[in-house]
């Protein structure tokens, strides 16, 4: 039977009772106000229906898992505490973020936000260890709120010992925007425009290559991805830095928003940005920067938004991770919170000074052949 509100004798609080999909419920709504209790009842019933279809792992948040972990005897140390109505530590950082939305990038970003000046040992002890303890509790076979996973921890090199690090593939981790600016400034205009858009939208390369001029709303600062990797249409906020670029594109082009140096569309293959491999490799040789690839823009935008204090739900909406009925319904409608969030991404002067900003379309078929690249960020050639 559906959940109902009842009152027990001798108590003021409302209680919720009933059965949803074979799950029996009898618990306090935590309030004596009937309107508030009804809202709690509706939310609980909706959640139980959702769990019956997708499983509990689709709904459990880190905060709920942490509370259950402590209730079962787990240590509350470093998880957080309530102060003036707000939670600190890991519980405050992740709060209502669902467990299945948290990955290694999100854990690393949490450590950077919560302990910005701490060394590897401190971050390990105060962030990674309590987080992993909660995760392992949630992932136990009898619970299955999360999947079994191996987490990486920060490592401190041992004194007098040579450490051989396994090289990371470019494009799989973020870089600082100052570093990205020096790299992009050494590229020919057409691929430089692609990389700029990737760093300031967080889009996947294949999404950007498929973007049409008709899907660009410059006035509303909004882009529409018609077919994302997940198969869902989604909206993407436009950073104010990109307005001159997209204004020129909308005025000059009717089909593909981005074209290569020959004026042709980029192939729509998901090769991790392989469509601009040649200019990327050239920029690596010129600058000496080896850790940047097209996918670096997406990772950098994600990490920088976290460091800027953007709510995880807003960040997920920008990157296309959060697919809800609401986000589907408003795909074409600019959303102010997302636009405000994307505008927190920093714009180094080196990036602003690229010569092609004066007329992106006219410069898009030029080739930048640098003779020299100085560490002082002075560039010779036609591209910057």
Question: Which helices and strands occur, and which strands form pairs?
Answer:
Elements: E1 4-7, E2 14-20, E3 23-28, H1 34-54, H2 62-71, E4 82-83, E5 86-87, H3 89-94, H4 104-114, H5 120-138, H6 177-184, H7 189-201, H8 205-210, E6 216-217, E7 222-225, E8 234-237, H9 243-252, H10 277-287, H11 296-307, H12 312-319, H13 325-329, H14 336-342, H15 349-352, H16 360-363
Antiparallel strand pairs: 1-2, 2-3, 4-5, 6-7, 7-8
Helix pairs in contact: 2-5, 4-5, 7-11, 11-12, 12-14
**How many separate helices?**
16
For the largest beta-sheet, the strand count, sense and barrel status come to: 3 strands, antiparallel
Task: Report Rg.
Answer: 25 Å
Give the overall pLDDT as a whole number: 82
- Class based on secondary structure composition and strand pairing: mainly alpha
Low-confidence stretches: 371-384
**Fraction of residues in helices?**
40-55%
Percentage of residues in strands: 5-15%
Total count of domains: 3
**Helix-strand topology string:** EEEHHEEHHHHHHEEEHHHHHHHH
**Count of DSSP strands:** 8
CATH homologous superfamily descriptor of the largest domain: Intergrase catalytic core
Spatially, the strands of the biggest sheet line up as: 1-2-3
Highest CATH level, the class of the largest domain: Mainly Alpha
Please tell me the CATH architecture of the largest domain by its name: Orthogonal Bundle
Give the overall form.
globular
Distance N to C terminus: 69 Å
């Amino acid at each position: 039977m559906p959940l109902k509100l009842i009152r027990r004798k001798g108590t003021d609080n409302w209680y919720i009772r009933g059965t949803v999909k074979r799950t029996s419920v009898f618990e306090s709504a935590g309030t004596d106000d009937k309107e508030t209790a009804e809202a709690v009842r509706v939310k609980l019933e909706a959640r139980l229906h959702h769990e019956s279809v997708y499983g509990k792992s689709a709904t459990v948040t880190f905060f709920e898992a942490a509370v259950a972990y402590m209730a079962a005897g787990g240590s509350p140390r470093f998880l957080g505490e309530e102060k003036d109505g707000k939670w600190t530590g890991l519980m405050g950082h992740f709060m209502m973020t669902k467990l299945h939305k948290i990955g290694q990038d999100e854990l690393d970003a949490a450590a950077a936000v919560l302990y910005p000046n701490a060394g590897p040992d401190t971050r390990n002890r105060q962030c990674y260890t309590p987080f992993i303890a909660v995760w392992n509790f949630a992932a136990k076979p009898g619970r299955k709120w999360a999947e079994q996973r191996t987490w990486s921890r920060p490592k401190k090199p041992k004194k007098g010992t040579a450490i051989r690090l396994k090289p990371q593939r470019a494009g799989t981790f973020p870089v600082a925007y100052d570093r990205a600016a020096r790299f992009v400034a050494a590229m020919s205009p057409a691929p430089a425009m692609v990389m700029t858009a990737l760093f300031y939208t967080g889009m996947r390369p294949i999404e950007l290559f498929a973007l049409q001029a008709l899907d660009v709303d410059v006035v509303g600062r909004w882009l529409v991805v018609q077919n994302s990797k997940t198969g869902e249409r989604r909206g993407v906020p436009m950073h104010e830095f990109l307005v001159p670029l997209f204004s020129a594109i909308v005025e000059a082009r009717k089909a593909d928003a981005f074209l290569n140096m020959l004026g042709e569309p980029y192939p729509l293959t998901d090769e991790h940005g392989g469509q601009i491999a040649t200019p990327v490799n050239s920029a690596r040789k010129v600058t000496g920067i080896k850790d940047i690839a097209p996918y670096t823009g997406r990772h950098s935008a994600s990490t920088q938004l976290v460091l800027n204090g953007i709510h995880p739900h807003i960040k997920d909406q920008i990157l296309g991770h959060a697919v809800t009925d609401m986000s589907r319904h408003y795909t074409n409608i600019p959303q102010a919170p997302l636009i405000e969030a994307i505008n927190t991404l920093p714009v180094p002067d080196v990036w602003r000074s690229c010569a092609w900003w004066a007329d992106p379309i006219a410069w898009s078929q030029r080739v930048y052949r640098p003779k020299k690249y100085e560490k002082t960020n002075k560039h010779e050639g036609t591209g910057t």
